[in-house]
């Protein structure tokens, strides 16, 4: 579980632990990873906390090796690590653009690349990538939306490649969710949450546990016939986008 130290990653990790799975919590913040590992261990799961920089291939390779040594196999990969960047197109420094792409896209790619080797040993695996409704309809900031759209393309291509190898690849695309990052943003802009909730048909944002439950389903044996799918969980927000029609073109000048 990359990004397993908080938010959706933490919620999904604890759901896995309650179901009897052993868990590896990989996070750039080792303190948070250790905290979630302790929670999982208290539930009764085998738990390993690792400091991992998903944008660094050697860090990812080492995490996979440590997972294999500790547990002997890898059945499920959840790519939950990610960052956002709140700038409009013309205001994005290229180094920040690269950081968003390195963590969100390259990090997802590297984890999938090295997880594939372990999963092929048993001809079984579940890869779940955290996308976003922003990656489908471009409702977020440009760098974030572009990164999440790239994750969709990567996952769908990988799903085709791995379909006959017993490995499924899917995307969970949440809408507005009550994660620590979101709570920090809303604290600095109190009206933003209210505007978001008023725009969502169900009238609220998601709880991390609701997204985690969807991840848990896709990670299960029962989801063996589900691959190459993007599961949008946004309280109906994207249904409004589909219903919107373009404004009529202005009449030609006479």
From TrEMBL:
CDD domains assigned: SDR_c
GO BP annotation list: fatty acid elongation
GO terms of molecular function: oxidoreductase activity, acting on the CH-OH group of donors, NAD or NADP as acceptor
Residue ranges of domain Ketoreductase in the record: 2-177
Region forming the signal peptide: none
Cited SMART domains: PKS_KR
Classification via Pfam families: adh_short_C2 (PF13561)
Gene3D superfamilies linked to this entry: NAD(P)-binding Rossmann-like Domain
Family, per entry: Belongs to the short-chain dehydrogenases/reductases (SDR) family.
Name of the protein this chain belongs to: SDR family oxidoreductase
Source organism: Aminobacter anthyllidis
